[in-house]
Fold these 2 entries.
Entry 1:
Amino acid sequence: MSDSHAAHGHADAPGNNSPFFQHHFVTMTQQASAAKLGMWLFLVQEVLFFSGLFMFYIIFRYLHPDTMLWASEHLLDKTMGGINTVVLLFSSVTMALAVRAGQVGNKQHQVTYLAITIVCACIFLCVKYVEYSHKFHMGALPGHFYSYAGNIPGEPQTFFALYFCLTGLHGIHVIAGIIALLWLMKRSARGDFGPTYYAPLELTGLYWHLVDLVWIFLFPLLYLIH
Amino acid sequence: MQTFSPVLIGSGGFWMPPQASTFAPNTDALFHFILWLCAIFFAGLMGATAYFGWKYKKRSDADRTSPIRGNHKLEIVWSVIPGLLLLVIFGWGFAGYREMIVAPPNAINMHITGQKWSWTMTYPNGGEDGNRLVVPINEPVKLTMSSIDVIHSFFVPAFRVKRDVIPNRYTTIWFQATELGSYPIYCTEYCGDRHSEMIGHVDVVTREEYETYLRGLAGCSEGDDLVACGERQFQRLGCGACHSVVPGQRIVGPSLAQVFGHEVSLTDGTTLTADEDYLRQSIMDPNSQIVEGFAPQMPTFAGRLDGVNLAAVIEYIKSLQ
Amino acid sequence: MASIAETHTGPHDGGHHESYLTAKRGIASWLTTVDHKRIGVMYLASILFFFFVGGVAALLVRTELLNPGKDLVEHAVYNQLFTLHGAIMVFLFIVPSIPASLGNIVLPLMLGAKDVAFPKMNLASYYFYVVGAILFILTIVLGGLDTGWTFYAPYSTTTSTSVISATFGAFVLGFSSIFTGINFLVTIHKMRAPGMTWDRMPLMVWALYATSLIQVLATPVIAITLLLLICERTFGIGIFDPALGGDPVLFQHFFWFYSHPVVYVMILPGFGVISELVTVHSRKGIFGYMAIAISSVAIAFIGFLVWGHHMFVAGESSLAATVFSFLTFAVAVPTAIKVFSWIATMYGGSIRYTTPMYYVFVFLFLFSIGGLTGLFLGALAVDVQMHDTYFVVAHFHYVMMGGTFIAFLGGLFHWWPKFTGKMYDERLGKLSAVLVFIGFNVTFFTQFVLGSRGMPRRYYTYQPQFHTLHEISTIGSYILTAGLLVALVTFIKSLKSGEKATANPWNGMTLEWHTESPPIEHNFAEQPICRRGPYDFPEIDESAAGARH
Amino acid sequence: MAAHSDPHYDGLGHHISPVRVYWLVFAALLVFTGLTYAVSFAKLGPASLPVAMLVACIKATLVCTFFMHLKYDERFNLLVFVSSLFFMAVFFGFTMLDVASRALVDPIEGYGVYEQYNPPAAPAEAAPAEAAPAADEAPAAGH
């Protein structure tokens, strides 16, 4: 689907004069759509990566529904989960607005929205920290480290292994997101992004929305079990 | 190791081992059907390749080649026909498989336990034997199998049966032996160092021999000759897989010959004379006293060996001088 | 010679275009290159090195099996040798073999592009490969690995060998595979030469497209499986190990969901190479272009539905086994179509007996046997007898080594003049093909008989009745090694003293033959425009109704 | 490609959604989050999981179409994303096909049957439980 033909069409296509135009592409539009397709393929790989843990969830819920019900009700805090969901949704909106600011070339908005997104991500991690420390304190840990006093029917240590795997892997992705957002903020502040070149903003936005998507499914599956 | 005498009863031909169960004829028939089908296709393909390779060899630079780039009719034909043949193979394969998974209700029930590098067979009367499965001829036998450490796989080539033996779960197979004789049992799922020596054998015998064998298997009672009964327990629990009865020959564990009454030095540096308590302790809780130069690999036999059987095994070990 | 694409100026315009090999000098220029051709050459060197390491392990295994009992090494060392052979050959050689080496070199050239879509990611892919490889070498040093390349739990979660470094190595290699996959997919979608529609792409590009689909969709599942295995060994989470409440058959589902599609990652590029070689060397348009192109993608898709045929006797429910057996036969049809089409392509051709064409014949012979023996393993009743015996070992060596590796060698000989700029000694090349053919069949056909007679897999010692067959197989492996060494000598001799290759030694029509050998750094002096299909050779007599006079 | 000056398209002709669309979608997401919360308290019994999943899917589609621009982008990106869901479903479906039908032919092969015949030794406080003693009594089932 390459657009313009011979080499002479280089100069006048939109964005071709931008310093970030890679010269093995013919036009900036081609570069942008290639970058986006590449990112979507990366997101496909992330979906399949999380699918392994969701498979673990399905099997565990199929085999030990009682453990899950009991442990989720007694040891997982619904309000904390709810706060985290709202925080992540809000960070998703501000991320999308940051991308929009990039499209219109408003540097100031980009920086502020990115800052809010990073703050929200940090709030999410703090809430997670509180939840984890509560569980560490109670001894509700995975596998060998499980030493929770109360007796939970079935295999509680495996449930907490599942909980820590799911939320832990999601947390790692949030941290990776924060690092990417900080790098983005630096570049936004430098004024790299404009109407013809905002691919990094958009790609990090797609990644962040996927992290939010995973949490949208994690929240009901782990916290709201009946 | 049990050498397998190639008794050519109902031979499986060049490809397959001898047929000794009700499944064998059907499995072999399907195998040979696929074999001949593939041979014909393969001959056709290679024939065409060789012929084209020779006929359309480059003769000169002025060669002109055919403009053919496809032929929908031919392409449909060579998709549909193989498809139908494949369906036939699938159907036949499934028919044979369906026989193998549903055990007849009147089958004799036995239990197989796989552990690292030996099989333990538990017979209907509770008697046990190591690496030796005795089954009556022409009677269905159902094996309920489980493992106590890693995955093994119970495979009797002559019966055309195979099923993985999984820890913490039961898997079952059944067969009906049709030929007398002794057939090897292999472990076909990799299970560690001695995976290749985890070999047992199935003895297909007449009903009477089977009955007498069962009676002989019952545990030791007070009156029996303890040493002989101890040797049978030693055999059934597969102790021989790791401990040899020949003085000084080391397999995985130390040799048990000339142990009783002699000095034994342990890994923690202490030395003691091997008396009955030491033997009992080593069987019940092997990791508490490990002979110098050996690794703590022996599983505990608490719950599997007690009372008269334990006393019999100790007597047997005492007799090994 | 009316070529497929006219370039605006003659092919030998301004001399300032240096070949990509000599444009920049020094190690640093190689280690920090983002040129797809250099990355392809670096991949080629690395995977050939690991093919050598895996091959030595194979030779030790075969020598040990010469006689029952101890020939060379103890039980434990033998177990580590066959595990090493399996893991290195799968993760470090055959998965990246054609896509990462030949694919990297040839794909942008075939598309008429300057480079792959994400050059820096391409280099990152190579460095992930290097890190993964170092972790594997670390595994050997840290006490080896004796779980088999399949890492089945609970053995892998309880053994004392260094499973964690091996699984982490395979996890890192997964990234290398995913990055190559993403790169190729985007390059094929977005960077084709003007005029190159989907039905004018060379079939090698279709094959790499289908391969990349699988790489992107399947590799993450093995990544999470290996991570869970590492967590199980360290934290004791109870997912796979039954002692902790897990289910080992669940591990096999996780593992084979990746490992069956990955065997199509291995063979599909081989199909692509064979499609290219058959057409160019018999000077004929491919027979049934759309059928072969679509069957590549069909195999990639159906490949995801059949993984259960590895677990027929592994405690899988009989309902699932039946469903998987049925779908397994569905995947056999597109593969059969390909083999028939290649042979039909030779009809009415003008076959040049070059080394690549020799390897095409070897491929057709060996892969046909490999494919057909898959039918035995797909039928439930016969698989109960054949599973985990040498029949399976022979089957997958026929399709993996006989299929992918032979196609890889054929492709290497075919494009060698293009990316090294040097021809090779045809006589030596053909000798290597003949020796490999004989050695391969002697080694592995005997293993079919061994397997059907009940010889189990991964056995250190075996019963006496299998002795003669093992001897024949071991001797065969030496002949095979000789053939491979002859091929190695051919390449080394060509590098040292091969004469200069022309831009188009085989008169191919695809775009990579429209630039110098070795190509300039940006591949094409002028952007080529694709006017016609990839296989419109001048020898084809459009007027003739197929009859060749 | 639309004219460059049109406020609804950026320099490369990609769509720019007005700001209020984002806040509208955000409001909808909050409403649905509240809905999932409410669903968990309402005693729906077995139906609670499907309903929760449905609501989560709606929220996910909202995020995908508006925030991730799938609505305005090339159709192929949508196909790519949907195919990932399809292959995830294949993975779940075939694995559960096996796991759910283990005891179909012979109940003794089902989950948890082994534990009935070999109850783990008394849950030891410190040392992990002894290896479950091998079933020395022939299991009753299967007769």
Note: The domain at 33-535 of chain C is CATH 1.20.210.10 (Cytochrome C Oxidase; Chain A).
Entry 2:
Amino acid sequence: MTTFINTVFINNPLEQFEIKEFFYMGGPLLGAKFSLTNIGLYLIIVTILVLGMSYLSLNNNKVVPSRWSIVQESLFGSILNMIKSTIGGKGEAYLPFLYTIFLYVLLSNLIGLVPYSFTPSSHFVFGIGFSVAILIGVTILGFQTHALKFFGLFVPAGTPLGLVPVLVMIETISYLARALSLGLRLTANMIGGHVLLKIFSTFTWKAVIGGPILLLISIIPFAFIIAFTGLEIAIAFIQAYVFTMLTASYLNDAINLH
Amino acid sequence: MLQSAKIIGAGLATIGLAGAGVGIGTVFAALVNSTARNPSIKAQLFSYTILGFALTEAIGLFALMMAFLLLYS
Amino acid sequence: MLQSAKIIGAGLATIGLAGAGVGIGTVFAALVNSTARNPSIKAQLFSYTILGFALTEAIGLFALMMAFLLLYS
Amino acid sequence: MLQSAKIIGAGLATIGLAGAGVGIGTVFAALVNSTARNPSIKAQLFSYTILGFALTEAIGLFALMMAFLLLYS
């Protein structure tokens, strides 16, 4: 039995995240180096999907909305409600920004679930790039609207005087940790989910070809994989929603200072 | 030497399941309490509980997955 | 020798997932309890629960990321 | 030999994240329970929860910082 199990991992389950180069142009002569890698390709695909969806729902400006434009309008409306409840009136200026983030992160999560595909959002460069850019933008916005009063953000209302220095130190650390935790949350969920799927599918595959008795036993991990893929789709939606929700609450901190 | 480290590592990783155990117990305790308080929406409560159970189970399986990863590669 | 230390370190780091399991169980227990108490605002409660779940899961997965970091670098 | 001790030390330090996971779960459980009990002051409750979350997360990240400190210096 043990010999059968330890041939389960032919190759490393983390191999699915490796970046492979498709073609490579330019060299020392040209100076400019251009190489299309699989993460680059999938980012382009996701962009085309997002633009295509918006174009489809444009419905060449007919008054009667087509099904696609209803989808987009309801998505737009739900994000508008979320912004209204988080930031209030002034936040509506950031609606297109948050809508694009939500759609982009959602599609890059979902595209990873297509078999034989690659998840752009399972790379730290995608997640942390997004979150650091957002945090720098929010801080600049905060300073622009509130100049020096922005530091009031680090002192929550009603703290006794003696506690202020400790609290300011902790608040600044947690404010700076937001840059990492926002992106790391998205990426870690995607990596963890896909590695788990990879391990269980290899395990089931070994069980299926392992012989008649094992074929019967392999129904259980197979059912688990179906359940977990459903969970993975739910997690893709939840992560995209939470990413947008937290960006909105950080914007709220910058605009309304608590 | 390496094989012994793999076994110890897998053993340590499985401790992570303790949390999922406590979590699932708490979710079902809440189901029992809330069904007593408001039996009319039993179905809705049960669906939330199953969702909570599935998500807590997922965390436990992350730890189990890590244990398998350590044991076999 | 170093490789075996990496495996044991990764095994130890995975224990951090226990906390996330307990946390998610508590959040969903609160959802079930509060839906029984006040079913009219189910939607709002559910959105807070999903937010709480995602934030707790993030901490658990930080520990898992740390385990992967120890294992592979 | 020293490097392997560093790795095991970092693995041990990451276990501290378990507490932060439990804490954040409790904070959001309280939010869900209290919103059901008194939905009118949702905004105030939510801002307290975010503050509590930020402070609990800071403690968890202290543990992670300690783990990195052990690992790389």
Note: The first strand of chain A starts at residue 21 and ends at 25.
